[in-house]
UniProtKB/TrEMBL annotation:
GO terms for molecular function: pyridoxal phosphate binding; transaminase activity. This is Pyridoxal phosphate-dependent transferase. The keyword Transferase applies. It comes from the Eukaryota. It comes from Lasiosphaeria hispida. It holds the Pfam family Aminotran_1_2. Its cofactor is pyridoxal 5'-phosphate.
Length: 502
C-alpha cells in the first residue's frame, strides 16, 4: 500500500481536504466549536460554506467560488428558508443598506413606540435634499453618456468637496478630478483595473466585496494586514509605515470602517496621508462618511480630502456616492475623486468595464449635492442613526451580548459571540440559528478577506463574530432583536438541560 493510501485510510471516517500541489490530505482543521469531524458532520451551514468557497469545479468553464459575495451567499441561504417569498416577515440585518429615503417620513417608527418612553422621540431625517419622485428623461440623456460621467455632476461633486473639506486651501478640485461610476463596486473595479504592478495592502476585517475585486486582476498582489481585536481594530499610522517599508505601494481601506464601525479621523488620518505622500497611493472608501458620531452629530463628515495638499499631485483616491449617506442604493450613482491623470484613466476604462452610469439619474442627482442641503441632511442622518445604534446596543446587551466597543461611525455592530451557548458561539452556526427565527446577519468569516485563498478561513479570528446592520427601519430592528433574543434563550435552555442531565 502506498504512503498516500495509508494516509487516506486514516481519514476514512471524516471529510478531509487534499493539498492540490502534493496530493496529500491537509492536517485536521480547527473549528471554532468542538472538533472538526463533529461540527462538519452536524452543521449544514459549514458544509455549504466549504462547497461555495473551497473551489470544486462542476463545469469546466465556471469558477463557482466567484459567483457571490458573503452577503449574497447569506441571502441565498435565507431564500432556502422562505425569505424571498415573504421578505416583509423577515428582519434582514445582513445587507448593508440604510433606510431608503421614503422610509424616513413622519409615519416611520420612533423609539418612543418601541420603548414606550413618551419623552424619547426619534428625529426624522431632513427633507431638504429630497430626491425627485419622477425623473425627466432629457433628449441628451437618451444617448450614450460619457464613461467618466456628465460634466455638470462632476462639477457638483467637486464643489461639494471643496466647500465641505477644502475651504481656504489653494488647491481645489475641478470637474476633471471627478469620475462618476455606477456604484461603489464598479468604482473599486475601475480603480483596480488601472493600478500598476504593485502590492496592494488592505486591512482585515473589511468590506466583503473587496475579496472578489482583489482576486480578479493579475496586475497587483493583494496583501492582507490583520488588525487587532484587543486594539479595537484601529489602524495605527505605524502599520501604514511598516507596509510601505516592505514594498506596498497601494493602501486600500474603508473609512469609516465596514464592518467594525470604527473610524480613523484627524490627526491620525492626516499622519497616514503624510506617510503615503509620494510613496504610496491611498484609496479611501468613504461610503459611510456621513455616519459619523464623533462630533456630536453636527453634520461633520469624515474625508481624506481635507488633508490633500495638491489635488493633482497627492495620490489619494476617494470613493463615495449616493448609496449610503444619501440613502439611494438603487440609483447606482457614485464617484471617485483624485488626481486628473488617475481620473482620466479611471474614466476611460469604464468603456470596457461597465459602460458608465445611467445619465437620467446623474442629472437628477445634481441639485441634491448643494452643500448647505447636504449639511442639513447629515445632521439629521447622524441623530437618527445614532439613536438606532443606542437602541440595538441596549437590546443586545440585555440579551447577553458583551459589546466592548460601541461603534463611532457607520450603521454596523461587529457583534462578538463569545460567551453565548457553545452551539451558537461561532458566526456560521449563529447565522443558521437566526434563520430559523427569520433574522439575517452576516458571519464574520466573510470579512476576513482571503483573495488568494492562502489560508484556511476556518482558522479565522473573525469566526466568532457576526455583522449586525442597524441600517433598516426601527420596526425591522425590533423584529430582529426579538428574534435574536429567542435564539439566545432557546440555546441557553438547551445548554441548561444538557448540564442537568450530566
Amino acid at each position: 500500500m502506498s504512503a498516500i493510501s495509508n494516509i487516506l485510510g486514516g481519514f476514512s471516517a471524516r471529510k478531509f481536504s487534499i493539498n492540490r500541489n502534493t496530493g496529500v490530505p491537509r492536517p485536521a482543521r480547527r473549528f471554532s466549536v468542538g472538533e472538526p469531524g463533529v461540527n462538519e458532520a452536524s452543521s449544514k451551514v459549514h458544509r455549504q460554506f466549504r462547497a461555495a468557497h473551497e473551489g470544486h469545479l462542476p463545469h469546466a468553464g465556471l469558477d463557482a467560488t466567484r459567483s457571490s459575495t458573503g452577503v449574497v451567499w447569506c441571502t441565498e441561504r435565507a431564500g432556502e428558508h422562505g425569505f424571498l417569498e415573504e421578505p416583509e416577515k423577515w428582519a434582514n440585518l445582513g445587507q448593508g443598506a440604510p433606510e431608503v429615503w421614503h422610509s424616513l417620513n413622519k409615519n416611520s417608527g420612533t423609539l418612543a413606540s418601541l420603548t414606550k418612553n413618551k419623552h424619547h422621540r426619534l428625529k426624522t431625517i431632513s427633507r431638504a435634499a429630497s430626491p425627485p419622485k419622477t425623473i425627466d428623461i432629457s433628449l441628451n440623456s437618451r444617448e450614450y453618456g460619457p464613461t467618466a460621467g456628465i460634466k455638470p455632476l462632476r462639477e457638483a461633486v467637486a464643489h461639494l468637496y471643496n466647500e465641505m473639506h477644502r475651504k481656504g486651501q489653494p488647491s481645489q478640485y475641478t470637474w476633471e478630478n471627478v469620475a462618476i461610476v455606477p456604484g461603489g463596486r464598479a468604482g473599486l473595479i475601475r480603480i483596480a483595473a488601472v493600478l500598476n504592478n504593485a502590492y496592494v495592502g488592505f486591512f482585515i476585517p473589511d468590506y466583503t466585496a473587496y475579496n472578489e475585486m482583489l482576486s480578479l486582476f493579475k496586475n497587483f498582489a493583494a496583501i492582507p494586514v490583520p488588525l487587532s481585536e484587543e486594539d479595537g481594530y484601529h489602524i495605527h499610522p505605524d502599520k501604514i509605515a511598516e507596509e510601505i517599508a516592505r514594498g506596498t505601494s497601494v493602501i486600500l481601506t474603508s473609512n469609516p470602517r465596514n464592518p467594525t464601525g470604527r473610524v480613523v479621523k484627524n490627526p491620525e488620518l492626516a499622519e497616514i496621508q503624510d506617510i503615503c505622500r509620494e510613496r504610496a497611493t491611498f484609496v479611501s472608501d468613504e461610503f459611510y462618511s456621513g455616519y459619523n458620531y464623533t462630533s456630536n452629530c453636527d453634520g461633520t463628515t469624515i474625508s481624506a480630502a481635507e488633508n490633500v495638499i495638491d489635488v493633482d499631485e497627492d495620490d489619494v483616491l476617494i470613493i463615495d456616492g449616493l448609496t449610503k449617506r444619501f440613502r439611494l442604493p438603487g440609483w447606482r450613482v457614485a464617484w471617485i475623486i483624485g488626481p486628473k491623470e488617475f481620473i482620466k484613466a479611471i474614466g476611460s476604462c469604464g468603456s470596457y468595464l461597465d459602460g458608465g452610469t445611467n445619465v437620467p439619474f446623474q442629472e437628477a442627482a445634481i441639485p441634491m449635492l448643494e452643500p448647505e442641503l447636504v449639511k442639513k441632511e447629515m445632521v439629521a442622518l447622524q441623530h437618527h442613526f445614532r439613536e438606532k445604534r443606542d437602541y440595538v446596543v441596549s437590546r443586545l446587551r440585555a440579551t447577553g451580548f458583551h459589546i466592548k466597543l460601541v461603534p463611532d461611525s457607520t450603521f454596523y455592530l461587529w457583534l462578538d459571540l463569545e460567551g453565548l451557548p457553545n452551539a451558537i458561539s461561532d458566526g456560521l452556526n449563529f447565522f443558521q440559528a437566526c434563520l430559523e427565527e427569520k433574522v439575517i446577519v452576516v458571519p464574520g468569516i466573510f470579512f476576513d478577506l482571503n483573495p488568494a485563498r492562502r489560508r484556511d478561513l476556518f482558522d479565522s479570528p473573525c469566526h466568532h463574530f457576526v455583522r449586525f446592520s442597524y441600517g433598516p427601519k426601527l420596526e425591522v430592528l425590533k423584529m430582529g432583536c426579538d428574534g435574536i433574543e429567542r435564539v439566545v434563550t432557546k440555546f441557553k435552555n438547551l445548554e441548561k438541560k444538557a448540564a442537568e442531565k450530566r
